[in-house]
Amino acid sequence: MKSSLYIFVFLAITSFQVSAQNAEKIKWYTIDEALKLSATAPRKILIDVYADWCGPCKMMDAQTFAHPVIAKYINQNFYPVKFDGESSAPVQFGGHTFINAGSGGSRRTTHQFTSALGVTGYPTIVYFTGDLKMIGPVVGFYTPEQIEPVLHYIVNEKYMSISLEEYQKTFVGELKKK
Q1: E strands within 66-146?
Q2: Residue 138 belongs to domain spanning
Q3: CATH number of the domain residue 45 falls in
Q4: pLDDT of residue 1
Q5: End-to-end CA distance of the chain, in Å?
Q6: CA distances to 10, 13, 22, 34 from 16, in Å
Q7: Total domain count for the chain?
Q8: Is there a domain that residue 102 lies in?
Q9: Residue 12 included in any domain
Q10: Please, which residues have CB within 8 angstroms of residue 155's CB and are 6 or more apart in sequence?
Q11: Entry pTM
Q12: Domain-embedded: residue 2
């Protein structure tokens, strides 16, 4: 009897570890990759603008973007991009070249692309249509339950006809069902 209990516990732990390892993760793209993909197969673009020193940014990565329901939905409906808002790498976007004119010193400075996106704090997610029209930036840390309706609001283009607040009143997503 004891041995069958041990086997059951072992199998339960092992299957949990395997399912956790197989959980869907977001496939992050560079800006160039997302633009090329969107040119051939249009899809909305989500740009996660972060900073290395930003605690809430790290929490978004660990909690929100790592959530399997959120990761799956983002992978299916967006070309997700990670962008360091203080990067020193030049960015080509919308026929313009953006740089970080202050990079190289001891103090981190904001990239021109970050400013062009309207980012006022970290983390910020900036959403674009499939034809690269900016929908807008959303500032701050969001839990999986908080970001799920925002993602659906963007994908279903409800932003064109209703406020996010109104949309959230009737939204029932995967995470609310549980």
Answers
A1: 78-84, 91-93, 96-98, 124-128, 134-139
A2: 26-177
A3: 3.40.30.10
A4: 53
A5: 34
A6: 10, 5, 10, 33
A7: 1
A8: yes
A9: no
A10: 44, 77, 78
A11: 0.83
A12: no
pLDDT at 18: 39
Instruction: Say which residues have a Cβ less than 8 Å from residue 78's Cβ, sequence separation at least 6.
Output: 43, 44, 45, 46, 151, 155
DSSP state of 158: G
Angle separating helix axes 68-77 and 144-155, nearest 10 degrees:
20
Tens digit of each residue's pLDDT, the chain (178 residues)? 554 434 444 434 444 443 444 578 999 999 999 999 999 999 999 999 999 999 999 999 999 999 999 999 999 999 999 999 999 899 999 899 999 988 665 567 899 999 999 999 999 999 999 999 999 999 999 999 999 999 999 999 999 999 999 999 999 998 876 5
- The first and second tokens of residue 38, run together, are 């969107």
Whole-angstrom distance, CA of residue 30 vs CA of residue 126: 14
Q: How many other CB atoms sit within 10 Å of the CB of residue 45?
A: 23
Total residues found in the chain within this entry: 178
Structural domain contains residue 14: no
- Which residue type, as a one-letter code, is found at position 168? Q
| Alpha helices by DSSP H, the chain | 2-21, 31-40, 55-59, 68-77, 112-116, 144-155, 164-170, 174-177
Nearest to 34 by CA among 88, 78, 68: 78
Q: Residue 10: what pLDDT?
A: 41
Q: Compute the Cα dihedral for 16, 18, 20, 23 and give only its sign.
A: negative
Residue 82 one-letter amino acid: K
> Tokens for 162?
């209703």
